[in-house]
Amino acid sequence: MKKIGLIAGASFLAGTLFFALTFGYFHKTIENKTVLSPAIVKAETKSGPGFDFVSLVKKVKPAVVKVISESIVERGGSMFGGDGFLERFFNMPQERRQQRVAGVGSGFFISEDGYLLTNYHVVKDAVKIKIVTDEGKEFTARKIGTDPKTDLALLKIKEKGLPFIELGDSSKVEVGEWVLAIGNPLNQDLTVTSGIISAKGRQLGIAEYEDFLQTDAAINRGNSGGPLINLLGKVIGINSAILAPSGGNVGIGFAIPSDMAKRVVQDLKSKGRVVRGWLGVYIQEMSKQEAKEFDLPVAGVMVAKIEDNSPAGKAGLKRYDLITEVNGEIVKTAADLRTKIANLNPGDTIELTIFREDSKKKIVVTVGEAPDTERFVAEGDDARALDLGMVLTKNNPSLARQYELKTSEGLIVRQVERGGIADRNGIQEGDVILAINRAAIDSLEKFRDLIAKKEPGTTVFLFINRFGYESLIRFTLPE
């Protein structure tokens, strides 16, 4: 036992000495002031004026909040126990009861007038959202908009002069940089952990658009939506997920890059939805070995299918074309190509470098707007949002076939939040909204405009098609 203790003690001492020598962490005190060696004081643009975590935390922590989301779930109960027991085994109807449940996540203010960011999955089914600041003040937040494709949500409270954290430039982040993660892990109040950026460009398959930063700063359940901060006090990521075989942190956490969040915030503020670029192609990643089998000289992303009337088709792109660059930037993976195109604006002109068989070509494409679902949030003149608790998308022949509809007009209700405004008004998934108060609905924008003009508490008539039958539904807007 003594031998083990000596080895452990020597290892600890050697490790400490190695750390000190490596980072120049020798300092002396002069007139009660700590002076760091030149090795510690790195370039202001990369690491800040030093490893003064205390001052950094004091600066940013007041802007981080606890996000408490209340949602409604249906549960059945019986004397035999087990949800749905009577239906499954005795074919007997069982009473369903609605119950409010609360979930806890994190978020942070991005402006002094009350805008804050969190994860979409934190507030996904919320019928009420409460924000608790570091000082213990409580506010009710409203959704400005959400983006399930990146797992981000923009909220707002009615307050001014709030502390906030600036979104930094995640494109300049380097592996090995020190970072702090702040949030509310495992139902604890605000907690700060430190670590480094372990990797960039991670793909997990949990969101449609991914470019995660990986960190070993401790992240657990409840940290979702909290900021990942660099030593300049700027947000470079929004903590979102962990790989945890044991259920707890094992040093593999992931954050959404701030550059991706900037685009989402801008669109949700100005449009209430995220507008993305679109080529209209189905793609397949090709390794070097797979490319050889197609007689192609390099790896890249192969076009497997081109949609009708798509920007790619109009530009002359063909099946089996191998895309290797976008505007001179190398395409690393299929996910990388999707993200590059999604970050463009409709109408942008880009140059694709492709290989068609063994010939290298340049193709110019005018980017289109991605057909998308959106969570409706309409802004009135008083900047008060109306969250209608449903996800809508413009109907088309393809969706009509998918939902077995007899019409390809109107807007399809793709999702209804349990307990939300739409649910309480009797709207169901699969309903097709054809008109509001006799005004035909032929686009998402028209629906938003008509709703935004109505006074709070107004009752409107929605002309819908449900299972092939058309009817009117009274829809009362929230107060």
Shape: flat
Helix content: 10-25%
The chain-level structural class is alpha+beta
Count of DSSP E strands? 29
Rg from alpha-carbon coordinates: 26 Å
CATH class of the largest domain: Mainly Beta
Return the CATH architecture of the largest domain. Answer: Roll
Largest sheet: 7 strands, antiparallel
Terminal residue distance: 71 Å
CATH level 4 superfamily of the largest domain:
PDZ domain
Summed up, the domain count is 5
Low-confidence stretches: 1-49, 373-386
Number of separate helices: 12
Tell me about this structure.
- The chain contains 12 helices and 29 strands.
- It folds into 5 domains: 2-41; 62-156, Beta Barrel (Thrombin, subunit H), CATH 2.40.10.10; 172-270, Thrombin, subunit H, CATH 2.40.10; 277-369, PDZ domain (Pdz3 Domain, Roll), CATH 2.30.42; 374-476, Pdz3 Domain, CATH 2.30.42.
- Strands 23, 24, 25, 26, 27, 28 and 29 form a 7-stranded antiparallel beta sheet that branches.
- The chain starts with a helix and ends with a strand.
- With 479 residues, the protein is of the alpha+beta class.
- A hairpin with a 2-residue loop joins strand 20 (349-356) and strand 21.
- It is flat, with a radius of gyration of 26 Å.
- Residues 1-49 and 373-386 have low confidence and may be disordered.
